[in-house]
Amino acid sequence: MAKKKVLNVAIDGPGGAGKSTVAKAAAKELGLIYVDTGALYRAVGVNALRNKIDTKDEHKIKKMLKSTVVELRYIDGVQHVFLNDEDVSAEIRTPDASMAASNVSAIQIVRDFLFDTQRDIAKKNNCIMDGRDIATVVLPDAQVKIFLTASAEVRAQRRFLELQEKGSDETYEKVLADLIERDYQDSHREIAPLKPAEDSIIVDTSEMPLEESISTVVNLIKEKM
Length: 225
Hints:
Layout: E1 8-12, H1 19-30, E2 33-36, H2 37-50, H3 58-65, E3 70-75, E4 78-83, E5 86-87, H4 95-104, H5 108-124, E6 127-131, H6 134-138, E7 144-149, H7 152-165, H8 172-188, E8 201-204, H9 210-222
Parallel strand pairs: 1-6, 1-7, 2-6, 7-8
Antiparallel strand pairs: 3-4, 4-5
Helix pairs in contact: 1-9, 2-4, 2-5, 4-8, 7-8
């Protein structure tokens, strides 16, 4: 009997484009598993920060990985990120964790370290996986490839409001500057730079309310299901 092929959806894009929110909502509506790969890199970055390691120091990061265990666990259908058996789902969402993730994700050994985890989930599950190189590197054979984007100003405003809700005192100007810096860093790195795959569908959410962004992505996936 032929093995049924799983459905893999790859969603890439810059920070603040709404990847996680849209992918999570689409996965719930379509009955797919949601996989936030950026959370894995954030966990590695947080581990480096906790150990006071320069997140650009490849030698020290390599040594750190020998005692690092990062897992995605699904509790009541919600993805949680565990670092060395500790739930760090909240800690990885800080601005410092975001920049640390950008730094460590430019190191090949970190990408290799997390690659099998991501691929293994996709092999076994119908899933929506989001990140920055899912369609280009991690799941190049995904049946649906979407590049979700928006203007830097719109993305910064979204991120700023999220941080405000969490009680952060970060200013909009600082959030925008950090986002532009990460955009540049992610798109200019030598290893797996942020860019759409040749066959990715570009979805610009700058002028879209959240509900429209979700329905647009859901409809694109339904066309392939």
